[in-house]
């Protein structure tokens, strides 16, 4: 089958690989119909995630038709069109039972922090992902969810990560009615977080990025204010000034390890890899939120140390909340929101790229070319 193949930092290609096989009675094999490229894939693509092995296939946002199931699979059957949450989760451990599917204790034997994630290096379990014609889906009674009749597969594929992550970013922020919410990052996740902030009762939503077409997209899609940090002397001062010098009620980091905007953080975090990514967005969030405020972090960082202003966190009495999203926990509510037209995920999809051209897809998304917001890869076997 054809699959995306990682060859080293900023080198990916489409290659022929063996078909995945059922390895466990609870496995399913799906024929992939849609697979997105995510900002999280860029951390792998840029070589910033430990133990990203040459030869692996990325892709944690995918939908597909069930082609084969193991003998213990009862919740999905051959022929079902399913959306597959990005978390690989057992459904039965201490953490899954609390709805913390992103922190499953069973699905990732390599680490005790993060659970398994499809196509996300051996640090996240070593599972091949869905940027391929076929994928193996473990714990098939837990994750894969039948796409409701009538739902557009383009909407469904964004329910595997983008919509739940934007929503969880706003949820973790504990937004109170009337709050001023600042979202750092106008990628798909930041845009969705801004949209969802209104659902929690925000009174004002501000998005910060440096890419003008993305800021414009955020303004239109999320009906929010959006500003370019390169046009400000200091984003923290800008936010303080625009909030009567109180600071924002909550700040959301939807940027993560590849943050720009601070030379020292960029050199130590992105070039020399002396810390687990550039902590620029965390700095801005901590320093521009009000005393007693909440910083919600969904931007992804590596497992080791970061230069984070923890003294300011302490002295301002902040609450920091952060996690990988627990997609399955949020799906029932978010499927309803999509069906009722409250969230329109597919509007984020700007590019559809044949899987054969996966290298172009990564470059386009990574370098923010051609007004790209979100890229979907379509495999030759998609047929839908
Ligand atoms: N927690 C989770 O479960 C989860 C799930 C999905 C994605 N993520 C993470 O969310 C983050 C965003 O994902 P995405 O798909 O939107 O990625 P993306 O790369 O498309 O978007 C990131 C945006 O941040 C902007 N940016 C860079 N430096 C900035 C700064 N200092 N301040 C403000 N904006 C800045 C970039 O210009 C870009 O538009 C990534 O770190 C990704 O790994 C987390
Ligand atoms: Zn993702
Ligand atoms: Zn579990």
Automatic annotation (TrEMBL):
Tell me which domain of life the UniProt entry assigns to the organism this sequence originates from: Bacteria
Domain annotation Alcohol dehydrogenase-like C-terminal: ranges: 188-266
Q: Does the keyword Transmembrane helix apply?
A: no
List the keywords (alphabetical): Metal-binding, Oxidoreductase, Zinc
PANTHER family from the entry?
A: DEHYDROGENASE, ZINC-CONTAINING, PUTATIVE (AFU_ORTHOLOGUE AFUA_2G02810)-RELATED, ZINC-TYPE ALCOHOL DEHYDROGENASE-LIKE
The UniProt family comment states:
Belongs to the zinc-containing alcohol dehydrogenase family.
The molecule here is called Threonine dehydrogenase-like Zn-dependent dehydrogenase
What is the species of this protein? Hymenobacter caeli
